[in-house]
Amino acid sequence: MTTIERTVSTTRPPDAVFPYLVDFRNAVEWDLATVSCERVSGDGGPGTVYRTVSEFAGTEVKLLYTVETVDEPRRFVIVGRNDSTTSHDTITVSPRPERGSTVVYRAELTFTGVTKLAGPIMRPLLDRLGDRTAEQLKTALDRL
User: Which domain holds residue 94?
Assistant: First the structure.
């Protein structure tokens, strides 16, 4: 398993940040790899399914994500799957003492088949993507 975790601080309060992140369709605005995201079924709560198309290392990656947990206003868990990858993503939002919010985004990636063999090669690419996505996430949240 490969884990990528980033922490982002924003001046926006949790009551603005959490609903934005829970609507996973917004990932196209803050996740640099996500090209498209559509809600296939559900109302945004547990059991909701999203279909995403991402671009990673020049390859199109399609995942079906299912919302596992929505503990408003603090924690959101969504799990994406395809034939070679499972991504277990946890987003935690906490108020900052001075003002705003802190967001922790943790993606636990499990690879199978040929993708599993490429894991060590993908790690630096995933780390760089995590850094760039954290920057974009901060920008998107600060605009709310």
Answer: 2-142
Q: Residue 57: phi, psi to the nearest 5? A: 55, 40
From 20, 50, 41, 37, select the one nearest 138 (Cα to Cα).
Answer: 20
- Domain with residue 129: its CATH number is 3.30.530.20
Residue carrying structure tokens 């994500």: 65
Query: For the segment 45-83, what is each residue's pLDDT rounded down to a tens digit?
Result: 999 999 999 998 888 999 999 999 999 999 999 999 999
User: Given this model, what pLDDT does residue 26 score?
Assistant: 98
Length in residues, the chain: 144
Number of domains in the chain: 1
Give the count of alpha carbons within 13 A of 57, CB side only.
11
